[in-house]
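Hi U.,

Before I forget, here's the chain from the pilot set. I'm dumping it here mostly so it's searchable later in email.
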Amino acid sequence: GPEVCKVAGGTGRQVCLMNIGEAIFWREHDEATASQETRHDDMGSDGITVSGSLTTSRAPVLPHCLSNARRVVHLKGFGTGNFPPDGPSCSDALLIDLLLSLLGHAAGAVIVWDGDEFSENSFTRILDKALAARANLTAVAFFYAGLQKEFERSWQPRLEHLGAARMHLVLVDDPTTAAFGSDESWTNLGLQALHLSRASQVLALGGGGVVAAEAESSLRDAHFACSLRWILVPIPKGTQEGMIASQDADYGSLYRRFQEQKWPNFV
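Structure:
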């Protein structure tokens, strides 16, 4: 859809208002000239294991691509069963373009996510397509160690078509203060991933109660208060074919909480 752009005062960055179907959101373009330097990860470093196209480490050991990243964007959104199909209210092409524009074109850009499984009706569909679209991208997942096999079963088949794109799995300790699989455990995982990845931007393609809890917690965390920016795309929840965004659509808990509280680090 049409865009209305302006330069954010003092930042040199251009912020554009876009339209996907009837859903309006902001995207930010980085207009700075990016270096085209090529960097090679040392995949033989201590604490990092390699299995096919997937490398694995145990936190706090991080893959070199993340430790040396030029730009990190944390991707979140509606999970399996709640992300709409490609169509008028959820254009995959526009969402991929938004994600890639936030990452920039230079080598050293990294997408981070919380280890959600691949599914055609999850936001991970956009992650998968973005990796296939740009060969110099790297993706890093943070996930509980006890669920490593589940992650590998979900993502290993996808690695075959990703070409030069690489995927890394960082395992964190299983939850001890919350029940495994509870909303609290997933919220804690997301906050750990934000801390460890040092992401400066979160792109939320919709989001439910867990993502809303992460966003609210990040506002109370001095580490994130001034450095973490959330970009929310109001996507209607559901998987009904031909669904059109409307005033009656359910945009999820993250959108509702943002509308109620007007969080300052959201656009």
